[in-house]
Amino acid sequence: MFRKCLIEAMSNNTARRLRLILYLDELTPGNVIRPDNRRKLYVWYISFVEFKLHLRNEALWLPVAAIRSTILSTVVGGLSSASRALFKAMLEERPSVLLTGALVNVPDPTLLQAELKVYLGDEPAVKGIWSVKGFAGIKPCLFCSNIVKKTSELRRLHPWLKTIVEENKDLFQPNRNEDLWNAQAHLAAQSALLTKTALDTLEKACGQNFCPQGVLADRDLRNYAKPLDSQFDSMHIYWSNGIVDLEVDLMLQSLKKEPGLNSQHLETYVNSWSSASKTSLWLKDFQFKGMASQLMQLFPVLSYFLDKFLSTDASLTHELASFRALTRVVQLLKRIKDTAEVSLQHTTELAKLQREHLSLFKRAYDAETHVKPKHHFSLHLPEQINRCSCLFDCFVTERKHRLIKAEIQHYSSCATQFERDFIIRVNEIQLSETKDHAQPCLIAPKLCPLGFHVARRARLKYVSVAEGEVVFAHGMAMVVRACAEVDAVIELLVETYTFVQFDANPLSRVWRKSSIARLVPPECQLHFHLMLFFLYFLFLSLMMFFCSMFKQSRTSCRSLAAGHSWATIS
Ligand SMILES: [Zn+2]
């Protein structure tokens, strides 16, 4: 699969110079209840911008380096020093894809050249690579020279200085790469002259640490590693302890004070929409405690609930206006993520909606208390999307961590050559899984009484699909009820829904259930969790119904399928 995507990317790129994405994250093996801190480690993955929408597939992210957190804590210069060593190794490699290029057989020998173009990660990872102060510092933003934190007295010194609560992006003064390099050089020059306390103060004013072992201090790397090629990740900005978490929490606290509304009402309503998981586990007593994927299920339902039942509530006017504005931002981000070539029109609209939202949020809630650095970081997303005409986020790499976490259990935290052996091993597994990905198959299949295999999940050509998820094809929405392998072909049993109308809520559509179908999916676009459905009929008992329908539909399906290159079989 990697080869196929590489051929496609290289054939579409006349310059034959692809753009490398470097993703960095810290993983904690074990689980939430029992984290295995001894085996915590940082992993660097790479992929290519040109893979575009295929980047949602974990198989296209290659782990290239790892270091245990315990070892990193003894390295002078920390994460920036380790990243510098990685960049150096990529340049010193012979042949180097960053310098001379390397021959790859795709299938004819072809010269592959690449440039480091995107550094993706959560805020601590981006901060660590460049050894900057990050959101805790007086200058919390890598991209702006005049943005200071909310509590800084600096903001009173000059009107040019703005805090993170400012929503007008025209007032931001952009940093240049040279500014960041020059600041590091200035710190180096002053380090021999200043006391430690004075140097600390200067570091805070510069927004970065004096780190002679780090990337910013290495002049030879300046042509290859540029700090402003970093990208904040929209998943962490919005969904993982992010802007949506915060606003959902604030809205739930407001609802708690609503006369006549108790937590049971809300939980019953939300649960009536949820078919894939037990909402009651993460929404209780007006409190949400869940992960990003669960928040993505809750958010559209809550948004719809507010529109339908509380839209005329005068006591919540500002809160509802802010929530609606956030809903519009989320809806557009979802649309942008599904677009292979994002246009300037998309990102201009996104910038407008984000500004509107932050303005309404500040009217609804106390800005000094509730506006967070992630609100400011989010305003940089449009320009970051413009750079590659594509939105990258960390959902796929978070899924990819499962491979690392599963494998690391077999390694002693004290093993010598841990990092080298580990990264070789995960690449071997990756290679084998990449081959497997080429062939659609059922995951954990079971033999059913009719003599064929069924499963709750299946791996298709580029994506996996599971019971309860929604597939869009031929203008229809289809809820997957089961996966099967019949005559060596992977099929899905789906409930089909035809589109009826748009709804006032931007995340909602009205669909009517039409039939049960068997689906042979060569390719399909999958949307998870972000769409509401008006399900006019109750769900039927899955496996019993599945077995009986299969028997009944086998004879009538072929003629109906004849008109479709994409077989939807009623
Ligand atoms: Zn900024």
Descriptive key words:
disordered C terminus, binds zinc ion, six-stranded mixed sheet, 39% helix, alpha+beta, 3 domains, eight-stranded antiparallel sheet, 21 strands, 20% strand, 570 residues
| Sheet having the most strands | 8 strands, antiparallel
Compute the CA-based radius of gyration: 26 Å
Number of domain units: 3
- Coarse structural class: alpha+beta
What ligand species are in this complex? zinc ion
Instruction: Estimate what percentage of residues fall within beta strands.
Output: 15-25%
Strand tally: 21
Question: Residue ranges: pLDDT <50 for 5 or more in a row?
Answer: 523-570
Number of helices: 19
Shape: globular
Q: State the share of residues found in helices, binned by percent.
A: 25-40%
Question: N- to C-terminal separation?
Answer: 32 Å
Arithmetic mean of pLDDT: 83
Describe the structure.
With 570 residues, the chain is of the alpha+beta class. The protein has three domains: 1-131 and 393-438; 243-371, no CATH class; 441-567, no CATH class. Helix content is 39%, strand content 20%. The protein has 19 helices and 21 strands. It has helices at 2-11, 69-72, 78-92, 123-130, 177-191, 196-206, 234-239, 243-256, 263-273, 292-309, 317-337, 344-364, 367-370, 373-378, 381-388, 395-408, 418-437, 542-553, 557-561, and strands at residues 17-27, 41-48, 62-68, 102-105, 109-121, 147-148, 162-163, 230-232, 283-284, 287-288, 441-443, 446-447, 453-455, 457-459, 464-466, 470-473, 476-486, 489-502, 509-520, 525-527, 567-569. Strands 12, 13, 16, 17, 18, 19, 20 and 21 form an eight-stranded antiparallel sheet that branches. Strands 1, 2, 3, 4, 5 and 8 form a six-stranded mixed sheet that branches. Helix 5 (177-191) packs antiparallel against helix 6 (196-206), helix 8 packs antiparallel against helix 11 and helix 12 (344-364) runs antiparallel to helix 15. The longest helix is centred in the middle third of the chain and has 21 residues, at 317-337. It is globular, with a radius of gyration of 26 Å. The protein starts with a helix and ends with a strand. Zinc ion is lined by residues 141, 143-144, 147, 172, 376, 380. Zinc ion (ZN) is lined by residues 141, 143-144, 147, 172, 376, 380.
